[in-house]
Amino acid sequence: MISDKINEIINEQINKEFFSGYLYLSMSAYLKELGLFGFSSWLKKQAKEEVEHGLKLFDYLIERNSFVTLKQIKTPEFEFNGIISIFKILEHEKCITESVMKVAKLAEEECDRTTLSFIDWFIDEQVEEEQTVRDIIKRLELFGEDKVSLYLMDKELGERQ
Ligand code: FE
């Protein structure tokens, strides 16, 4: 069985992943209202991925015969300021990366090799996630002012499976 400290930090991480899902859903609704259907659909898929991350952690605790403590999920922001609000995702993902790193650090301190190996997947996932969002932002900075480009980007993001 894993230690109380590890149990606590993983339970917190579950909450953070679900909160990420909430935040992205909130942005998705807003962007849909703006008529950016592709961005909206991309974010909704992102939200589903976050829920999957939460469930992965949930399953891990159960597999290790540890306890799941589901905490209250914060209300996400719901007032945004145009397409530029997508920039917030990168800031948020950076916080999540930091938080995943803290789990790894604690696992190291606790000599918990199983959790260390488990959390590696999340570290790789965060690198990928930050990269994807950074690329979207780069392109928005370059072309976002131009309506045709924004339309094309929206269309492309809407094609995400
Ligand atoms: Fe995540």
Concise synopsis of the structure shown:
The protein is mainly α. The protein has helices spanning 4-34, 37-63, 87-109, 113-143, 147-158.
What would you note in describing this structure?
This protein is an all-alpha fold. 77% of the residues lie in helices and 0% in strands. Helix 1 (4-34) packs antiparallel against helix 3 and helix 2 (37-63) runs parallel beside helix 5. The protein is elongated, with a radius of gyration of 17 Å. It starts with a helix and ends with a helix. The model has no long low-confidence stretch (mean pLDDT 95).
* Helix-residue proportion: over 70%
Dominant shape: elongated
User: Which percent band covers the strand fraction?
Assistant: under 5%
* Strand-pairing-aware structural class: mainly alpha
> What's the number of helices?
5
Bound heterogens, unique: fe (iii) ion
User: Biggest sheet, open or closed, and with what strands and sense?
Assistant: none
Mean pLDDT: 95
* Low-pLDDT windows of residues: none
**C-alpha-based Rg, rounded:** 17 Å
Give, in order, the helices and strands.
HHHHH
- How far from one another are the termini? 37 Å
> Count of DSSP E strands?
0
